[in-house]
TrEMBL record:
InterPro entries: CTDL_fold (IPR016187), Sulfatase_Mod_Factor_Kinase (IPR051043), SUMF_dom (IPR005532), SUMF_sf (IPR042095). This is Sulfatase-modifying factor enzyme-like domain-containing protein. Pfam families: FGE-sulfatase. SUPFAM superfamilies: C-type lectin-like. GO terms for molecular function: formylglycine-generating oxidase activity. Residues 97-372 form the Sulfatase-modifying factor enzyme-like domain.
Amino acid sequence: MSFLKKNNSISITVYPHTEIFIRNKVKRVKNGKISILLKNGVYLCRYKCPGKPSFTRLLFLNNLKDEISFDYRLLQDMSEHHYNVKVHNPERLPFEPETLKIPGAHVHLGVQLGEGPSTSLGSYSIKLRSFAISKYEVTNKQFSTFVQSTGYVTDAEQSGGGFSTDGRGHWQWLPSAQWRHPFLKNRISLPDDHPVVMVSWDDAMAYCKWLSNMTNRNYRLPKEAEWEYAARGEDHRLFPWTRSFNGDFHNYCNHGKSHKKSLGRGSIHDGYLLTSPVNAFPRGVSPFGVWDMLGNVKEWMEDDFIYYDEKKNSQHANQKEEQYGSITIHGIPKTLRGTGFYGDPQGYFLNAIARNSHVHKARFSALGFRLVEEL
Ligand SMILES: [Ca+2]
Ligand SMILES: [Ca+2]
């Protein structure tokens, strides 16, 4: 087998009677040669040939000027070396985040007086349709596939960096910060299985839009009602795992005020100064099996940030500005949920009801996202 990539087309030479599946395109080849026109992007190709082993590989098309050819064996070796792809569900692409279905329900959300910060006060009922939410925060690996496929440049890369931390309570604006190396005093790329950070709300939305186009599914950021229900379950628990704090169940602050006092049974030393792998805390999953709803990274919601009373009237947030030293960022305040690795258990925000905001162009080294798939 050989196959050539040139501009937006792929030309494939195969054994006779091979079937090739590329997204929704299925080609049955009788005599060995076909040409398929495709838009730029990442494609999952499945090859089936009588008498030969079937295999599935990713194909990147990005207006390559030079022809690239592979033989069957080289294609297998390269894919295994670079991508280490396992297709658990043949309906889901290898780079597509795993999701969990949350059944629709009439839910009661929010809190009463005394349970959280003033921005979180109030309660409301809402009817949620069934949806699927990503089991983990979106990872560096998943985001890098998007960047590799599209050449996307994040807001931090375009507009002078972002607000960064060393994990020891020191924060400052770092002009060189971006998702590949977001932390102070650390330009080493983050591991693939850690959540992507230093991405703005716009960057997260661009990822969702790309993924939707790639998969013919409808991905977007979670609405905060969806997120809260997925985190708290039907019994309105304050933490995803139970009603009481447990320091062993999530990645939160190793420093600051919480360093001197621990709450609940757990240690304040969770093993991670900065981000952690998205599957590091199995005991912290929500009733629906969603990981890291508290801790690791704080997460962007789709919603504008307004008080619950204003939500009832479907109001929108007004433009505001945020100041980071000499840097000013303008934007619409968007809701954030689930405090990240810097979350202090002595503060108000380390629970599943607290909410706060940053403007949509803001980016932090502790701020990432997960996504929802509309069903
Ligand atoms: Ca930690
Ligand atoms: Ca989180």
